[in-house]
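Long-time lurker, finally posting.

We've been working with Late endosomal/lysosomal adaptor and MAPK and MTOR activator 4 (Brachionus plicatilis) and I want a structural starting point before designing mutants. I don't trust myself to interpret raw outputs, so I'm hoping someone here can both generate the structure tokens and explain anything notable. Sequence follows.
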Amino acid sequence: MSDKTPNLEQIPNALGYLVLTDNQITSSWGDLENNEQIANLALRIAYTAVKVPVNPDTNDFFKRISIVVPNQYVFMMTIANKQVYLVKRALK
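Top reply, 14 upvotes:
Generated this for you. Predicted structure of Late endosomal/lysosomal adaptor and MAPK and MTOR activator 4:
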């Protein structure tokens, strides 16, 4: 893990994470380690979401997306510093 990657594995109930830069996995851990299928799905969701403004009167776009799998886990995604961060957390 690079010094610039936050300690995502320290997020409470974290099961795994992916960090994507330039459409490639640059860091991963746990359930999502090197998971290209989830990485590609996350990128498609992010690219679709940035096309839809949060407020039609501004140029604001999403900051975070949560995808909940009921009674199991949640995927939390954010974009910062030209990177996509995706964390899988257990629901407890």
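Before you design anything, note these points.
Helices lie at 36-49.
The mean pLDDT is 90.
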